[in-house]
Q: What sequence folds into this?
């Protein structure tokens, strides 16, 4: 069973937990866009969403790694997800960072927009026939509100970039 714990502030300033449960055959995904394509990632892989900050380049890195930055004294590697997936990006378009809980690397994925969180049934996920040329990155496709959402596994992206 999935369990999501959200923190909120009460009126007197104390934090309290709000627990949202989903059944074993459901999951919640964070839905986002890159260019005109819609993607989703399991919310359990997401730590936070941040406004982009200047990034320091890193020599001899993976071509999709923009560099690193340090919000709140934590070194985070920035991955340009559009570049990694071979989609192409418009440098003038607004972006956000989705910071992921990856096993061996603090990673922020640059995306265009976050559309929200959707609860989906595992039964509705269809097998992905193509995975942007990388094995295991695209875990499936699901239709939500008439839109096809490609589900991405951020851990597989990190494993490919930093094996």
A:
């Amino acid at each position: 069973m999935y369990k999501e714990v959200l923190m909120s502030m009460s009126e007197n300033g104390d934090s309290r937990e709000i627990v949202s449960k989903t059944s074993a055959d459901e999951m919640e995904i964070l839905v986002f866009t890159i260019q005109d394509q819609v993607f989703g990632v399991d919310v359990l892989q997401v730590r936070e969403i941040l406004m982009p900050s200047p990034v320091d380049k890193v020599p001899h890195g993976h071509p999709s790694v923009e560099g690193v930055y340090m919000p709140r004294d934590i070194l985070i590697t920035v991955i340009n997800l559009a570049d990694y997936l071979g989609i192409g990006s418009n440098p003038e378009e607004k972006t956000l960072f989705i910071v992921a809980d990856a096993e061996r690397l603090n990673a922020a994925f640059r995306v265009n927009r976050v559309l929200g969180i959707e609860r989906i049934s595992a039964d509705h996920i269809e097998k992905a026939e193509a995975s942007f040329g990388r094995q295991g990155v695209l875990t499936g496709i699901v239709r939500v509100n008439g839109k096809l959402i490609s589900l991405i596994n951020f851990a597989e992206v990190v494993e490919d970039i930093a094996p």
